[in-house]
Amino acid sequence: MADFKHGSDAAQDIDVLVTARHHDEKAGKLPLRADELDTLIYALITLQGWTPFLGAGNYNSMRMNGGFSSRPQFRLAIERGSGAEFRRDVEVLTAGLGRIADEFRLRHDGADKPEHRLLWLPLWDDAPLPLSCVHPLALEVSRRVRLIERDGTLQLLRAGSKSMRVDASIWNGDVLDPWTPILVIDGRKALSAQPDTLGYRELPGLLFSRNKCELPLLALPAEHERSRSAKLIVQALAGGKGKTNGLLQREISMPASVTRRLGHEVVDLARRSQLFVDRASEMSGKVFRSALIQFVDGSDDVDWKNKDFDRATRSAVDDYERDVDEAFFPELFRSIDAGHDDQLAQVHWVQWLYTLAQRRLPVATEALPTRSPSRPFALARAERVLHGGARKHFGTWLAQARAEAQNEDTTESTR
Questions:
Q1: Which domain, by its residues, includes 189?
Q2: Residue-level pLDDT at 22
Q3: CA dist., res. 20 & res. 42, Å (int)
Q4: Are 320 and 334 part of one and the same domain?
C-alpha cells in the first residue's frame, strides 16, 4: 500500500470531467458515505471504463481508440425501462457468445477460453495483461485505486501505473466491445465521437454504410426482433486532448420496416439517407443561407463572400439545421415505411425542407441587421432569392410536389 496516495473522499474527485480550472464543477462534492455506496460505484465504473488518458500513470480503457478518445455506446431497445433494456442486452450477449468466441480465436491464433474476466483480480505489476488472455466481455479496470475506511469515513487511494492494464493499443479499440461501432475506412478502429458525430450529416453513414462502419452486437436486432419496432439509443462523451466536448445522446425510433433492414439489408437505407443529407445540405447552404445573406446585404449586387455576413447569418442557419436534424430520421423512415422509391421520397423531403425555409426566413430576419434602408424591402428581396434558389436547385421535385398536392385536392373535392 506504500505507493497508494492522493486520497479522494468525494465521488466528484473520482468522476470529473476534464474542464477549465474555473469550471463550476468543483472537487469535493458528493462525500463518500457508507450509506451511499451506489454513488461511489457509478463513479468507479466511469473512472475504470470511460475516462481517457490523463497524464503519466493514468491510462485509458482498452476499448478506446487512443488515450484522448471516447467510448461510445450504441444499442437497441425493444421495450423501454431499465429492467427490460438490461434483460434484452443480457439475452443478446448470451446468444452472441459463440460468435464472439469464434472471432476472438480467429484474431488471437486459436486462443481459447481467455482466463481473465474481472481485471482487478490478476496481480497488477509493471507489465500489462496480454489481450489474448482477456475475455472480450471482461469487466475492466484502467486505474489503480483502493477503497479504505479511515477515521470513520471512506477514502479512495490512488496509484499510478507504468502501462495500460491491457496491452491493446495496437488494436485501436477494436476489441469486440458489444457497444462500440468500428470504423472500417483506412483500417479498423473504434469510433471516436466528435461534437457533430450524432448529427444528421454524420450519423446515417455510421448506421447504414457498412463500407464505413460496423455496428456492434447490441445495436443489431436479434432474429426474433427483426419484425418489431425499436429504439436505437446512441450516446458518447465527446473528448479530446485535455478537453471535453459534451455528452452526446440521441434516441431514434425505428419502425419494423427499418429494424428488419438494420442487420443485413441496409444498402437502400444508406443510399436513401445520403440523398436526404445531400438535399438538406443544398437547401440549407445554397437556398436558405443565400436568402439570409441577401437580407443582410440588402442590395442588388450582393457580396456573397463577405465573412461578416456569413458570421451574422450563422446562428439562423444553425437554427434551421437543428429543425432539419430533428425531422431527418422520422421523415427518412416514413418514406421507407410507405414504400416510396428514391424519387418520390426526395419529392416529399424537398417539399418539407422548402416549407421549413419559408417559415424560418421571416423569423430569422427579425433578429438580423440589414444594410438596406427598408427592412420590408430587404425581406422581399430575400424571399425572392429563396424562391428563385429553390426553383433553380429543386424545380423538378417541387413541381412534382405541387402536382401531387393538386391531385389530392381534386380527389378530395370529388368525394
A1: 5-262
A2: 47
A3: 23
A4: yes
